[in-house]
Amino acid sequence: MVSFAAPETQDDTLADWTSPSRASRAWRDLVEGFKRNWLWTALAFQDIKLRYRGSVLGPFWLTISTLVMVVAMGFIYAHLFHTNARAYMPYLSLGLIVWQLISSLITEGCQTFLASEAVIQQVPIPFSIHAYRVVYRNLFVFAHNLVIVPLGIVVFGIPIDWHVIEVPLGAAALAVNGVWIAIFLGIVSARFRDIAPIVASFLQVAFFLTPVFWPIDALGAYKWIAEFNPLFAAIDVIRAPLIGVPVATYSWLVIAVTTAIGCTVTFVFFARYRGRIAYWI
Amino acid sequence: MAFARLRDVSVEFPIYSGGSRSLKKMVLHTTTQGNIGKDAKDRITVLALSDIDLDIRHGDRLALIGANGAGKSTLLKVLAGIYEPTRGQVQSSGRVSALLTSSVGLNPDATGRENIITRGMYMDVHPRDMRGHIDEIADFTELGYYIDMPVRTYSSGMVIRLCFAVATAFPPEILLMDEWLAAGDAGFLAKARRRMEAFVSGSSILVLASHLLPMLHEWCNRAVLLDQGRIVAAGAVDEVAHRYLVASGQVEARELAPASV
Questions:
Q1: What are the sequence ranges of the domains in chain B?
Q2: Is B110–A121 a contact, with Cβ atoms under 8 angstroms apart?
Q3: Is A6 within 8 Å of B83 when comparing Cβ atoms?
Q4: Given A16, A39, A198, which is nearest B121 (Cβ)?
Q5: Most CB within 10 Å of its CB: which of A224, A255, B179, B215?
Q6: What is the least distance, in Å, from the CA of A191 to any CA of chain B?
Q7: How big is the CA angle at A259 (ends A254 and A263), to the nearest 5 degrees?
Q8: 3-state secondary structure of A55
Q9: What's the whole-model pTM score?
Q10: Vertex A178: Cα angle to B118 and A206 (nearest 5)
Q11: What's CA B234's distance to the chain center, in Å?
């Protein structure tokens, strides 16, 4: 083997070559990526723009399809669950809106790195940027859906009090969880290509198991099953204040625990496998 | 001062042959130790780069020579910071611009102009700062009206022009190019070379991987010969290119030998 090292650098002490630990590189990736917020916000806007190029209503199509679903399901399910439509429709529509955010964060989270393959193979930028982009894009769509909320509050005469401050807190918690989900699922699905379909079918089941469109009290003695479901907790903290009912007892606790565990596990995972992402995609 | 230093750099590539990429096989492998497990364990790793020691200093215009699969593109990706080496250390300083694959992450549905802005953003250039350069880039590409058309409608030559123009719009300190660039036509190559000479005139680094020895002669002042992931020769372009020809020639000669007996 021929060495092509310059002679004068041969006696470089190895001390100069100690590279930062995996954990500190992963941390720097997250911080540097976040600092380039103009990049991931612009990329997210571009995604939306391209997705709806040639469409007149753009992301509002989602809002409309939610509205259609709510009106269609509202009467029948209100009857099925023996509640009145006036109370059920706001419950259903907010449940669906938040569920759409959660489910798109999870499904698109599987594509975090796979969808950016061309970029990752070409320019070295912090990996976290791709995750922030996914989360920001979905929050942007979520914001479009929320425009029907004030309308609903007026139409259904919902009493709004100071508890409404829980809504932005809940959205912030969802954003933080979205980041770890996008990184974690992004890495796992880059390595194992069958994660995305597994996650998709899991989500379908979870939709029916989570009180999105059915009232949690219908569970009776088994209410705790739903109360400790993080997906319900995420919906609850945003939905409850907007329909004028108190947030369930354990929702914030469940969110705090989920966030802490998710972030910790993902950080360890990210530190360990960050360097392999480019090889896997 | 731009530089890049590699010490004992090795890159091992996992090859997930068909099914071993699936979770099922992985799970079966961990739960059963029998035949199915073996099936899942057919994980081949290819040693794409092996114990590379390399110093690249400012003013170097380094040619990477080697047969297909010798490790040229992998070495470029390590230099670009895209691949984290499995073993060894990489140190570099200087703004890197890499033209590694012809797709370059261009969005086929966006226009040339939009892609210029996006590519600039990936290179950490704010769209605000990029706007002033778009016309200059558009001029260089000679794309004319096509600059406002979706990239989907471009010929491959036009894509190459666009990518090169953007990658060099802000003179990089380290420019890494893979051989696909050679697919450009003669007029474009001459223009590209003039532009590169402007900034590779002493303080910058160019690393170019190619099979086209005449092009390497013209563009480079040093060369390394890669063979199966190892550096087997290093020095002036002439000598290294000669060794490459001899090496590939010898293989041919041996194959021909029995026939002539």
A1: 3-95+172-260, 105-171
A2: no
A3: no
A4: A39
A5: A255
A6: 7
A7: 155
A8: coil
A9: 0.85
A10: 130
A11: 19
With a cut of 50, which residues of chain A have pLDDT below it? 1, 3, 6-17
Q: Looking at residue A4, what DSSP letter applies?
A: B
Superfamily of domain B3-95+172-260: P-loop containing nucleotide triphosphate hydrolases (3.40.50.300)
Q: What is the DSSP string of chain B?
A: --EEEEEEEEEEEEE--GGGGSHHHHHHHHH--SHHHHHHT--EEEEEEEEEEEEEETT-EEEEEE-TTSSHHHHHHHHHTSSPPSEEEEEEES-EEEE-SSSTT--TTSBHHHHHHHHHHHTT--HHHHHHHHHHHHHHHT-GGGGGSBGGG--HHHHHHHHHHHHTTS--SEEEE-GGGGGS-HHHHHHHHHHHHHH-SSS-EEEEE-S-HHHHHHH-SEEEEEETTEEEEEE-HHHHHHHHHHHHHHHHHHHHHHHH-
Burial class (CB in 10 A: 0-12, 13-18, 19+), A52: middle
* Inter-residue contact A236 to A162 (CB < 8 Å): no
pLDDT (tens digit per residue) in B39-74 = 445 566 778 888 999 999 888 889 999 888 888 889
Chain A, 207 to 266: residues with Cβ < 8 Å from chain B are: none
Q: Is the ipTM of this complex over 0.90?
A: no
Structural domain boundaries of chain A?
A: 56-280
Question: Tens of pLDDT along A255-271?
Answer: 999 999 999 999 999 99
Of the partner residues B23, B84, B104, the one whose CB lies closest to the CB of residue A194: B23
